[in-house]
């Protein structure tokens, strides 16, 4: 299913929860809506689901108008499935009945599925690896198993659009990683378009074809995970997604002089023109490195966090705090004077050039 959101605003009284939202979701596309708490992610999902209507602008699905300020199609009349953070299972229904329910009631159930509802229940239970637990009640399931039931219930009627609101946030870290893979596999098998709301950038980067970064009710940037991570166009995207240090300085073409220090020149070929215009260089913690040789930007270490395969340092540089992630082979201590460098091979080099630099 294709979906278009055109010039949508949503106001609650005088508060603008969504401002001038324009977005296209292609057939089969996996779109992540990423942003901090309160930025309007759920509000946008509710408009797509049909729980609410826009204050202005309109929403189209498969080239049909489904919502504007005066009219909206209710959820049951849209060919969608939904998965919520809270699982939303019914306590009195066992696993099989949860999955059977939408198959009996979904308005868009295809003629092919109608005579084979039990077969479809089995098929979907196998997809989410729950075929041995069909008779269990929700109170007899773990968090991960409950989330699998919620996923199975949403995909059973083969909806054309699957809406997911922070579906993994109540699971522990290990289960979340496992469920990411399962959601990716389900996407490949079902070929449904997915809109996936999250505030976790690693989840969005790992799964989505396209990421929509939101802040304060507005879209900041839309792009592939690589574009959003490597070429942020706003300082918000650079710091929220890449956790970048926003380093002040002077640009001359693609060369950057941190804090206007003429002796230190960084290659900023990959930095977008929007950030150059603000005299900023977005350096992610893994793009910087520390040494004792005095040809970098001088700073003092103020915090050290050992993380196993790397160490996270906080460094005070010209009154600002920078974060650098460095491997464990060189260790520095709090109070130590260090020099911060941009890793040479980070930007704009071809693979063979990188190797030369790395192994020279
Ligand atoms: N019914 C409502 N009435 C008034 N304000 C609302 C209403 N629903 C949401 N808001 C406000 O709109 C803003 C966006 O809310 P929304 O739930 O979309 O944010 P979110 O990005 O999903 O946040 P979270 O990640 O915390 O769930 C918030 O400031 C919220 O307080």
Automatic annotation (TrEMBL):
Alphabetized InterPro entries for the sequence: AAA+_ATPase, ABC_transporter-like_ATP-bd, ABC_transporter-like_CS, ABC_transpr_MalK/UgpC-like, Mo/tungstate-bd_C_term_dom, P-loop_NTPase, Transp-assoc_OB_typ2
PANTHER family reported in the protein's UniProt record: MALTODEXTRIN IMPORT ATP-BINDING PROTEIN MSMX (PTHR43875), TREHALOSE IMPORT ATP-BINDING PROTEIN SUGC (PTHR43875:SF15)
Which residue intervals define the domain ABC transporter in the entry?
Answer: 3-241
The record's keywords, sorted A to Z, are:
ATP-binding, Cell membrane, Membrane, Nucleotide-binding, Translocase, Transport
Q: Which Pfam families match?
A: ABC_tran (PF00005), TOBE_2 (PF08402)
Keyword Nucleotide-binding in record: yes
Molecular function GO terms recorded? ATP binding
Recorded hits in SUPFAM superfamilies, A to Z, give: MOP-like, P-loop containing nucleoside triphosphate hydrolases
Q: What is this protein called?
A: ABC transporter ATP-binding protein
Q: Does the keyword Transferase apply?
A: no
Q: Which chain positions lie within coiled-coil regions?
A: none
